Amino acid sequence: VSSSSELVALLFEILFYEENLEQFSDVLKILERYFEGIVRQADFFQAAKVMSNIQELKESLSGKSEGKAELLDKVEKNAKDERSTSLLKKLYLEDKVKDDDSYFQYLEFLGAEAVPVVGMIWENAKELVHKHKATDILKEVGKKDIAALLYLAKGSNVSLTVEIISLLESVSDLKELRQLEDFVQHPNEEIKLEIIRILGLAGDETANRILMQFLTDHNVEIRASAAKNLKFIGDKQTYDFVLQLAGENEFRKRTKVEKKSLLNYLANSQKDEVFDFFRSILKKWSLFSAARPNETRLAVVSALETLATPKAREVLEEGTKVFGGSIRQ
Known about the structure:
mainly alpha, elongated
């Protein structure tokens, strides 16, 4: 190991001082062959050192010798290409990795390009600690490149997809959540419910726009969860959609949870047209009505009571005058 370290140090010293681009390239090729050899031998302690030194040298040459920097960049890209990541998978699956810490540190160094390898480890972890380390790497990658995580989430492993989507909760920049729209038609209920939960946490216009699409899902649980996670933030598209939905005859066939959540959403707008809409529903109250229409009216009462503004109380009092008594009777 000592002689290997000395060789690496010597090669980098030559590269640092070499001014001729052609000779620089020849020495770099020797270093790259050495690097490929230690990766095949699963010596990730040395591999990580080489990659770190390449990155430092490239930074030191930036603005001084673009030709040399480009050659170093090519070596770095080769270490992250599909051929290289396939080798990293193979070494793990064939139990050739003996120094777990160095292996995972090397994967951390590779960053987003290592996501396919990390995902494979998560699915095929030989030890529980490996799965935990894989999760930590995915979390760190997600802070810089959400797109790389979501690409991996489109795979066939449901558990991994749910895990990746749940990790988005810890990501501070949620701008890329618009890509969750790709999962609206996903066949798996668990995945959809986790996506809806994350969208609810985001609580912005993009999240609402995607949640709207879940409101027409064939699955009752999906629709109910989407309705509960909608946030009234004044965006016209969502408001118009929910108001139209509530005015359709089919709305009364929806579950109690759906109706309560969607009517609460409308109540939070405090718009006159919503209060007029609520009045029209309450005026149709009848002791002899079918259960579902009266269930809708009770949901309106609940929404107005929750809002508890003077206007809401006014509409509620008007409703309680039906049949000269309380609606609740």
